[in-house]
Write a structure and sequence with these properties.
Length: 107
Amino acid sequence: ERRQTARVPPKEGSELWLARPHAVRLVEISMTGALLRASHSPPVGERGELRAKLNDHTFSAQVEIRRVVTHGPGEVPGRYSLGVTFVSLDSENRRCLERFLRQPATP
């Protein structure tokens, strides 16, 4: 299935909380989900909480792992790419994300 909304690259410093916190790199984010890089491979269908810094605000959303892609050594930073969808997003975090996505892209 193809995403329906644009994705924007955020800044560093994100965590994915599953059974315990895992440092992840937030590669792209949209209104419906995100692409993460990680050194671990959670199972598809697992749910957790994504926390990320978007500008000066801390963004938090309940997510579900929808796709996991394994990369060979040296291909990309982080051994796994994780595609996640937002399953719960409160109004405050939705507004935070909307403000972030409305910003002009930086080259």
